[in-house]
């Protein structure tokens, strides 16, 4: 609406862009709309993007399902809601198809965040893993490179012969 007031005072679109801190392209587009349809043409049309496919009632139900946890809906291997699982849950409960990225946005909108499950074998024995890390890995790993033998150059080892700038066969005299 500020742009419309400026246009009515015959302020050029480039000046409107500068004053309102918008791109010049936007100001020229607004100017065109204002010329064609007046102030009403510049009225807000609401948020852009697609509408949510779940009603407010369904969103509340979904939040309740999420609170129940994944095990209550058939995912017993771990207790995390992945975006893929949420998309599947929405399809099962509301017969609405959501992409994984759409389910992620919906989760954020509801105050949840998708989780990434830890990929571990069910038969994993934590005690055996700890012993292997502390004993076997220490033996296999080795001592590493001794300190002080590295070069600052990635392409050539440091030279300890001569001074920088010295060339063989050239006298300093």
TrEMBL record:
Q: Where is the Winged helix-turn helix domain?
A: 77-134
Against InterPro entries, the record matches this protein to: Homeodomain-like_sf (IPR009057), Winged_HTH_dom (IPR025959)
Region span, Disordered: 140-173
- UniProt biased composition (Low complexity): 149-160
Return any one Pfam family short name: HTH_23
Q: Which SUPFAM superfamilies match?
A: Homeodomain-like
According to UniProt, the name of this protein is: Winged helix-turn-helix domain-containing protein
Q: Which organism is it from?
A: Streptomyces polychromogenes
